[in-house]
Amino acid sequence: MTKSTSKQAAKKARKVSPKNSATIIEELGVKLMTAKHPEIKRLKKQYPTSIHGDKFWSSSYLLMDYLNDNPPKKKTKILEIGCGWGLTAIYCTKKFGCKVTGVDADPDVFPYLQAHAELNDVKIKQLVKKFEKLDVKTLSKYDMIIGGDICFWDELNDTLFDLFKRAKKAGVKKAVIADPQRQPFIDLCARLDDHFTHEVWDWELPEPTPADGDILVVNFKKS
Ligand SMILES: C[S@@+](CC[C@H](N)C(=O)[O-])C[C@H]1O[C@@H](n2cnc3c(N)ncnc32)[C@H](O)[C@@H]1O
Fold first, then answer.
1. Are 79 and 92 in contact (CB under 8 A)?
2. Cα–Cα distance measured from residue 48 to residue 6, given in angstroms and rounded to the nearest whole number
3. Which of 79, 112, 130, 176 is least surrounded, with the fewest CB atoms within 10 Å of its CB?
4. pLDDT digits (tens, 9 = 90+) for 103-141
């Protein structure tokens, strides 16, 4: 074996090292690093997240499944609010060719999001902002809002209700939010009746990662 081919062989062997490949899984076409992956272990030490953005939450799988059945058009400008590690943002970019920005109040979620974007060979823009600070001007840049498991505290009910009002004013067409039926989310859905055209779907995904909950679809254009 010549020097250069033995070098290539060594490089190849490192790339498919069973230690690393076993910690990368693929779900609904998106590659994910598991908690055992060395990069996730390194990020966890360096970037401890502070508002529950510490993993992929199962509502993201529900959201992906709903969007698979109701796909957004290519190049749709999407804002994923409370994106965490950005699973759905990556899915929409990879599968539908959408332009997605992930927004989160916690800056420490973005190294995880970008590591996964790189793994999946997609580009996701990031924005560090609280829901409360997403003004009409910012929201007017997007066609659609998506979010998974973002209504988990009572005060987030008011926060998201007000965000929907600004989104309507901004000309956003729709919002699709998945939730594991937490009480603040149920209360939010109940108060939308007099203000927005919306639907709530009971959604279940048996595999690959089992998940169930609700999908809230708010159609701002029809309100
Ligand atoms: C339960 S995690 C869900 C993360 C991701 N959507 C998923 O399904 O994996 C909630 C996310 O919302 C973010 N978050 C919570 N309150 C927020 C707020 N007021 N403004 C912006 N982001 C917020 C957290 O930092 C966290 O990443």
1. no
2. 40
3. 130
4. 999 999 999 999 999 999 999 999 999 999 999 999 999
Please list the residues that pair with 87 across neighbouring strands.
none
Q: How far apart are CA 31 and CA 2, in angstroms?
A: 35
Atom 26 (ligand 1): residue with closest C-alpha? 53
pLDDT in tens, 143-194: 999 999 999 999 999 999 999 999 999 999 999 999 999 999 999 999 998 8
Q: Where are the alpha helices (DSSP H) in the chain?
A: 3-15, 18-21, 38-46, 58-69, 87-96, 110-119, 136-139, 154-170, 183-190
Domains of the chain as residue ranges with CATH: 21-222 (3.40.50.150)
Q: Whose CA is nearest to atom 11 of ligand 1?
A: 82
The residue behind tokens 């209360």 is: 187
Q: Measured from the CB, is residue 83 less than 6 Å from ligand 1? A: yes
Whole-model pTM? 0.90
Which residues lie below 8 Å from residue 42, measured CB to CB, with a gap of 6+? Answer: none
Q: From CA 223, how far away is CA 214, in angstroms rounded?
A: 21
Cα of 78 from ligand 1 centre, angstroms: 16
